[in-house]
Design brief:
Blueprint (H helix, E strand, L loop, with lengths): L8 E5 L1 H18 L7 E7 L3 H10 L4 E9 L12 E4 L9 E9 L3 H11 L5 E9 L12 E5 L5 E2 L15 E4 L3
Parallel strand pairs: 2-3, 2-5, 5-6, 6-7
Antiparallel strand pairs: 1-9, 3-4, 8-9
Amino acid sequence: MRSSAPPRGRVLIAAAIIATRVRELAAAVDAAYPDIARPLRLVCVLKGSLIFTADLCRALTVPVEIDTIAVRSYNGAEQPTGDVELVKDVGSSLRDRDVLIVEDIIDTGLTTSFLYEHVARHQPRSLRLVTLLDKPARRVRQVRIDFCGFVIDDHFVVGYGLDHAERWRSLPDLWVMESP
């Protein structure tokens, strides 16, 4: 099966609805930074947030710069392992910068908490978080979400950057998988 072929399951959120919501999130982010002096630094959490970050970046009107960070917590599994490992840190200084962490999904909150605390140690001027998906039913650690695309039930989802074992990232819709 090609990685772009749909998995067994159903569409949870169609591409057109995602696109509309990304534009709405961009408008909210723009409004949160009305007089920004330096470009807003988007920190894309690789790999799942890559497509969301690209679409959000194009929809924003405030000036932006993009950096990336990578962590590992799933290791190819459907459930987070509970251990979070920093795989790649940001490549440029975040000190005294307005920073927006761009997440694909917040599940247990463990990875996002780790990321938030790690990025905060870089001493940004301000630090906010945007997520495409929030899955609060599985929350173990509470996190502050400044901008949220969609709140979803406890489903395993793929598409629009989210994957299972590196498959189905390129699907334009978000799918609920029946089984991997």
